[in-house]
Amino acid sequence: MDISVIVPLYNEEESLPELHAWIKRVMDANGFSYEIIFVNDGSTDGSWKVIESLSKDNKEVKGIKFRRNYGKSPALFCGFERAEGDVVITMDADLQDSPDEIPELYRMITVDGYDLVSGWKQKRYDPLSKTIPTKLFNATARAVSGIHNLHDFNCGLKAYRKEVIKNIEVYGEMHRYIPYLAKNAGFSKIGEKVVHHQARKYGKTKFGLNRFVNGYLDLLTLWFLSKFGIKPMHIFGFLGSIMFILGFIAVAIIGVNKLYDLYAGNPYRLITDSPYFYLALTTMIIGTQLFLAGFIGELIARNAPERNKYQIEKEL
Predict the structure, then answer these.
(1) 16 touches 47 (CB < 8 A)
(2) What stretches pass through the bilayer (predicted)?
(3) In the listed set 176, 192, 227, which residue is the last one of a domain according to the structure?
(4) Would you give the DSSP letter of residue 293?
(5) CB proximity list for 128: less than 8 A, separation 6 or greater
(6) 238-258 in b/e burial notation, b at 16+ Cβ within 10 A?
(7) What's the whole-number average pLDDT of the chain?
């Protein structure tokens, strides 16, 4: 099979027949063998009935229905598990992503040799309340991930080699960082294509400012796991050691100062009367706790089942 198209959706019953007809028209015109996997993420409207109707009349249409709303990442994860095409295309169900982009995305994967191609909605039809946070988010994601050639990490229209989606795990709300997940899995040939963005035709946007905040937290989590996920002692042990040493030096300085005053006959006060003593002691305690956190993290990492899971590209 040439292409699997995965469409996660939530309350998009009006757009589904039009989207299916558009995808089918493009696929038939280019002679692709394909499947369309609609993942119904706990919709409360008639989306699933539409999917059932489309599946009944079209053998290429498949559907997955969640019992409740889990989010886009779980929807993509289940779609990736079921996908059988050599190239996997993901797109949103709101008709803002154009299926006319599929042939070129397919060519970039199969001919140009990209592992992943992400769409870039260079001209958007979204309100400023969405476009401005998106620009800030993408700038931060480029800096943290090191993937400097991508302008739109969160674009729903993407193309993947099958090997990519079978070797990454999309969870939580990590769908925003699939290129970063792919890079961490060893798939470094990541490209971008300017794609046409259309104004929403039906329904309303699911975007909220909470996603902007959560996106940054997820990015920090992914960065930390990619850097220190299998070597937590390198960060916790280092910070803990630095804090303990600084605290110890501070306590030593306080003690030496008192001994000097005693020797010189100067007025002095008890070490415990100095606030700096308690600050130094607290620093030593926090340093010890951080070091122990790193040690416990190492024990957990040592017993993790995927500790020796490596991406092997070829064997002879």
Answers:
(1) yes
(2) 235-256, 276-301
(3) 227
(4) H
(5) none
(6) ebbeebbeebeebbeebeeeb
(7) 86
d(CA 134, CA 207): 11
User: Percent of the chain at pLDDT above 90?
Assistant: 52
CB environment 109-133: b (16+ within 10 A), e (fewer): beeeebbbbbbbbeeeebeeeeeeb
pLDDT tens, residue by residue, 199-226: 666 766 655 556 666 777 777 777 777 7
Angle between helices 47-57 and 16-30 (to 10 degrees): 30
Residue 308 confidence (pLDDT) above 70? no
| Percentage of the chain exceeding pLDDT 70 | 87
List C-alpha distances in Å: 167 to 156, 187, 274. Answer: 19, 10, 57
Q: Tokens at residue 72, please?
A: 């886009």
- Pair (164, 245) in one structural domain: no
Whether pTM > 0.90 for this model: the answer is no
Q: Compute the distance between CA of residue 118 and CA of residue 63 in angstroms, rounded to an integer.
A: 24
Let me know whether 180 and 111 are in one domain: yes
pLDDT attached to residue 316:
54
Cα→Cα distances 298→202, 235, 238, Å: 50, 11, 13
Q: What is the CATH number of the domain that holds 23?
A: 3.90.550.10
Residues 91 and 234 in one domain: no
Domain span at residue 109 reads: 1-227
How far apart are alpha carbons 42 and 65 in whole angstroms? 7
Ranges 45-54, 151-160, 192-201, 240-249: which has the least confidence: 192-201
What torsion do the CA atoms of 102, 107, 112, 116 make, to the nearest 10 degrees? 30
